[in-house]
Design goal:
This protein is mainly beta and about 110 residues long. It has a single domain (about 5-105), classed as Golgi alpha-mannosidase II (Immunoglobulin-like). The chain contains one helix and nine strands. It has one helix spanning about 5-10; strands at about 20-25, 30-40, 45-50, 55-60, 65-70, 75-80, 85, 90-95, 100-105. The strands form two sheets. The chain has a six-stranded antiparallel β-sheet with strand order 1-2-3-9-5-6. It is globular, with a radius of gyration of 13 Å.
């Protein structure tokens, strides 16, 4: 089994130690697989593994501040710029090559 990308070690704890709950996620992009989690602090994490470079969009997330990490075939993690959608419920980023992108909410949004 290949090693997990470094950003997964930070955002999703190995073994699912009750620090997060897996939630539904799917990809409509051929060659891509997506998983999503909600952490106990209320933040969300979406991980997309894709076999080609190009834009990746995620829809249906709660409003908030998000960051993105990317790891490609060379194994060096780096941050990516994230663009929120106009309605605040989606994000997009551009992968420079095939790899894994992790979109993570940096601050949970309180709802009344």
């Amino acid at each position: 089994m290949p090693p997990r990308p470094p950003q997964l070690n930070i955002e999703v704890r190995q073994g699912g130690d009750a620090k997060q709950s897996r939630i539904g996620a799917q990809s409509d992009r051929r060659g891509s697989k997506a998983v999503a989690f909600r952490n106990t602090n209320g933040t969300y994490v979406v991980v997309v593994n894709t076999d080609r470079a190009g834009p990746v969009s995620v829809q249906g997330l709660p409003a908030g501040a998000y960051g993105a990490g990317y790891t490609g075939g060379e194994g060096t993690p780096r941050d990516l710029f994230v663009t929120p959608s106009a309605d605040g419920r989606g994000l997009s980023a551009t992968l420079p090559a095939p790899g894994v992108i992790t979109l993570h909410q940096t601050v949970p949004v309180k709802t009344n």
